[in-house]
Each structure stands twice: as C-alpha cells, then as structure tokens.
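The following block was generated as part of the benchmark described in Methods. Ligand: adenosine-5'-triphosphate.
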Amino acid sequence: MVGGCVRDLLLGKAPKDFDISTNARPEQVHRLFTNSRIIGRRFKIVHVVYGQEIIEVTTFRSGSSEAVQSRDGMIVRDNSYGTSIEEDSERRDFTINAIYYDIDNFSLLDFHGGLYDLTHGIIDIIGEPDTRYQEDPVRMIRAIRFKAKLGFKLARRTEEPIGRLAPLLLNISNARMFDEVNKLFLTGHGLQSYRELKHYNILDLLFPGQEEFIGSEKYDSFIEYALTSSDQRTLQQKRNKPHFLYTVFMWPKIQKLIYALKCSYQSTPNPPDNYGIVSEACAQALQTQHSVTAIPMAIGTDIKNLIYLAYQITDDSLQASEIEKLAHAGLFRAAFDMIKLRAQFEPEIIPYVKFWQHYYDEAQERFNQAKQEAEARRQNRLDKRKSRRGKGKRGRSMREEEYPLSQADKSALLTAAQESFDKDNSAQRQERLARARAWRAAMNLDP
Ligand code: ATP
Ligand code: MG
C-alpha cells in the first residue's frame, strides 16, 4: 500500500481510497481480478472495483528514460515499468506520499524522509522542484490541496517555484483539471483550498473570466459561505456535486451576462424569452470555463437548469399554477439552497426564501423517503443474490459482493499500520529521522 492511504492511516485519518503498488503488469493484475479494468493513457493503471470502493493498482515505475515528454518538459506518456519499490518511490510526488506499507512483512518503507515530514507537518516534493513541476504541473495543485487538507506547511523549496510555474497549469487537459478542481473543493476542505489558491494567485487561472469578481469582498464572502456549507455537508456524509460548485463560482458572472443580454435585446423586435437569455448567458460562461476545466455535458445542462430555476423562483411574475410544478422539479432543492445562499448577501432575496421554505421541507421529505425505498430495494436484491449464490456451484469468478472490504478489514489494516509505526519507533527509525533532520537542516529546507 502506498500514497494517501498510508499517509492518512499514520495520521489517524480514515483513508479516502487505497492505492496499491506492485511489480505485476497492468494486464496481469487485470487477469487476476475479474472485477477490474485498465484505465489511463498517460499512465496505465488498474481499478479493482468493490461496489462503491475502488482500489487503484499501479505497476512500479522506472526512471523517466522512456517517458515521452512535451517541449515544456511535461510527461505526456509513461508506461515504462521498474522492478523495485525504491525506483518507484522516486517518481511519486511528495515525501509523505511515498511511504509504503509492505503487507508481506507489515513494515513501512520510507526512502525520502516521508515519516519525518509527516511528523513535522511538512509537504516536500521529491527531487528537483522545477523539474518535477514541469513534468507534471498538477503537482502544484496537489501540493496546495494537501496543505489545505492536512493543515501542513509547504517546504520552502517546494513552495518557491509555484508562483513562477503556475501558468503551466494551462497546459493540462481540461478533463484532468475538472477532476482536480472537484478534489479541491468537494471533499471537505473546500474553504481552506479556496484560501490557499487565492494566496498562490491560482484562482484566476482556474476560473477564467471571473477576475473582476475574485478580488471583491462580496464575491469572496459569498464563496467562503458556500464552501463552508459544502464542507459541513461532507462532515454530515452528504455528497457535494460539481454542478452546484460551478454554479456558485460562476453566479456573479452569469448574473452580469444576463443583465447585459437583456439590455442588448431591449430594442430588438423579437427578443428571446427569459429561458433563452439565461441559456445564452450560461452557454457563454460555460464555454470560457470549459477551456480550463472540462464541463461534462450533463453537468453543463444541470448548471443551466439550476440557474434558470433559481431565476424563476425569485421572479415576481411567476403564475400561481407554476408553483407546485417548480417545487417538484429535480433541481428544486439545489435552487433553493442557491437562493438561501444569496439571501445572506442580498436582503431582497429573503422574502423568496421564506416563501419557498415550506416547499423545500416537503421536497426534502420526498427525497428522504425515496432514498429509504431505494436502499430497501438494493438490500433486497443483494439478499436474493446471496441466497441464490449459496445454492450455486463454487469456484465461479470473483464478484464484488463476495469480497467486500468490510469495516473490520479496514480497522485491522489501521491497527496493523499503527502498530508498525509504533514499532518503527526503534533505533533504526531514530537514526533515519536524525539523518533526514540533518539533511533538511543542511539544505535549509524547513519552512
Ligand atoms: P487522496 O487519495 O487522499 O486524494 P493520494 O495521495 O492518495 O491522496 P492519489 O491521487 O490517490 O492521491 O494518488 C496516489 C499516489 O500516487 C500519491 O500519493 C502519489 O504517491 C502518487 N501520485 C499521484 N499523483 C501523482 C503525480 N501527479 N505525480 C507523482 N505522483 C503522483
Ligand atoms: Mg489515494
């Protein structure tokens, strides 16, 4: 095991996912697990799927000799495999992400002083920072994400190039940037990520065309408030969805576009209706955003519909007959959340919040009931499948329900990792820590 799971277990946190590193080739791993698929073009990896849980399996990487690089030094493809863990560790991003937990003998392998950095709250890149960021600029965002998530500091040498090299992020594919932005904002530390990105002047890069708002106090408070509530949702184990995030970030821009379009159509003979204007404003804003973070079609449609619904429920010309219909719309709860958020900063919205609150409570109740029913149906299906399997032949292919990663398995892993960490508090570890400490002091690396 390597990466975030080892790091988070050692910090006493529940890992988000498990990453496995192995000398088996992707095709070999895939052959072993019928519940797996090979993914990735830049790096081939194998996803082994257990229901909602995905175990990411990567084959040891070798030195970068066979990697294909672009003119800027960015690695565009690299499927050159290595033979040793040590070699693999050099290709990982930060020292704290390169601690391996060897399940053969329950020991920790730490080739870059990651344990030292972990105990001192330091994020330090492996190797020469400029080269590593040029190879993959996403590492800059990852550094900031881990700083936000763990509350660590960036080592001086890891922090220094970010201001200079951040524009390289524009060379990253928009699909990958979409994933990265989701990880920054939707996983429980969105507020802190926002503050850090602002600190490193990266927000303008991530949300183009919003520069005029990003500096303003009102926009800032609006976003901070929205992110605080989505972080709270994560704590309550509720899911945060990308369409809401982008709607919040793009809201002031879209509002301005709507206003401009309305003005420009004022003197035309057949102006579009409100839906047409909202659609046009959203299309313009989404096109700009898409140049940095791909917005999948379905999410783009949700953003447009959400904005239109939020617009309708604050429209005084709304007919009484339309109220029930809007309250039953799929995105109604999100639209209500949106206007509730706005009401914090625009007092004229408060009466609409009061009006729709009752419809929101009803919609929430319908949602909870539908969720319970769906869960009962799922459980029923699982029970039926289990009883059928009990009667069937043995030795069939591995299926997800037969090998669930139970809570007990996870706790056992956690206990074993922590025991190993404590045991490692031996002379050997002390010696390694002292070496890492001396090295850091000599290189003047501490933040
Ligand atoms: P989390 O899953 O909590 O977000 P993580 O560190 O596990 O954090 P993953 O994206 O799951 O992040 O990556 C797993 C591991 O793969 C990392 O810990 C790191 O060792 C390595 N890794 C991921 N992305 C990169 C990268 N861009 N450059 C180098 N190594 C990387
Ligand atoms: Mg991970």
